[in-house]
Write a structure and sequence with these properties.
Rossmann fold, six-stranded mixed β-sheet, about 325 residues, 2 domains, 13 strands, seven-stranded parallel β-sheet
Length: about 325
């Protein structure tokens, strides 16, 4: 069995216990450069039985899958599967698995950090002091404010619990609400219109599905309070970035903390980089030593279980009885 890691750049798999464990499963080839070029990815997967995918920017398109006739499993390190043509995978009998929950706490912590840093204007304060000024601006107190969460999956519910711990009133909306989650994590489901109109902080945690593309478009952004802080640690495609830039420039939205973007890395000269009311981080919310080790171990375990005929964490493909 040939297992290919097509995109370990920058390296996270190399030199880990997970790689040693993977090598006990079959022949392993690790590529330490990008596989964003479809032709490069197709060549790397040409003889592969299994792909262990590291980077969300690596696109498993229908054409790429067609060029990998032996491929039977794509084991994704991470939760998002928007870089895989799932319909094409199903049509070719390819199982796709992921590692749900491995990064939930880390991403939730980063989300809360962005909320606090933006609300308390920490970057501006640090910059001002370093430049010799003493910018003691009035900043909002968060206790008692309303945190609106879009999406109550594993990450969204962790954010809800942490927000509750800060004294925020937490409300949420999702495609498939679960009242038991609301009870367990201390939040309340509300209608989408109410959440958008009343939230003081809005945090995005919806899955990046076709129906969620530009979920926050021009019309929904217009519903937000002018004092709202928008935080996105989900996916860049959830927001119409051009419309968001306009809102931030016109101060129809107070500020934003963004870890994800429609194009990554963020291109030079992107409008976000010149806006003083935006805090940017490089899609690093889930990058902790714990997440890397636990997530890689789960991705390898998914491969082991697939080989045993008992696949785990299946996104598409046959599930165990």
């Amino acid at each position: 069995m040939l297992i290919v890691v097509p995109d370990d750049n920058p390296p996270v798999m190399t030199g880990t216990p997970a790689l040693d464990r993977l090598r006990r499963t079959g022949e392993v080839r690790v590529h330490d450069s990008d596989a964003t070029d479809p032709a490069v990815l197709a060549e790397r997967l040409r003889d592969a039985d299994v792909a262990l995918n590291i980077r969300g920017r690596t696109g498993f398109t229908a054409d790429v899958l067609r060029a990998a006739p032996k491929l039977r499993l794509i084991s994704i390190w991470g939760t998002g599967t928007d870089n895989v043509d799932l319909k094409a995978a199903v049509a070719r009998g390819i199982t796709v698995t992921n590692t749900p929950g491995a990064n939930a706490v880390a991403v939730a912590e980063h989300t809360i950090a962005l909320m606090l840093a933006v609300a308390k204007q920490l970057v501006a304060g640090d910059t001002g002091v370093r430049q010799g000024s003493w910018p003691r601006n009035l900043v909002p107190q968060l206790r008692g404010k309303r945190l609106g969460i879009l999406g109550t999956g594993l990450i969204g519910r962790e954010v809800a619990a942490m927000g509750k711990g800060l004294g925020l009133e937490v409300v949420a909306w999702t495609y498939h609400p679960d009242p038991s989650l609301a009870t367990r994590y201390g939040f309340r489901y509300v209608e989408l219109d109410e959440l958008l109109r009343t939230s003081d902080i809005l945090s995005l945690h919806l899955r990046a599905t076709p129906e969620a593309r530009h979920f926050l478009g021009r019309d929904r952004l217009a519903l937000l309070k002018p004092t709202v802080i928008l935080v996105n640690t989900g996916r860049g495609s959830l927001v119409d970035e051009a419309a968001l830039v306009e809102c931030l420039q016109a101060k129809r939205i107070a500020a934003a903390g963004l870890d994800v973007f429609e194009t990554e890395p963020l291109p030079p000269g992107n409008p976000f980089t010149s806006l003083p009311n935006v805090l940017l981080t490089p899609h690093c919310a889930g990058m902790t030593p714990e997440v890397i080790q636990n997530g890689l171990a789960m991705a390898v375990e998914n491969i082991e279980n697939f080989i045993k005929g008992a696949p785990t964490h299946v996104v598409v493909g046959p599930r165990p009885a």
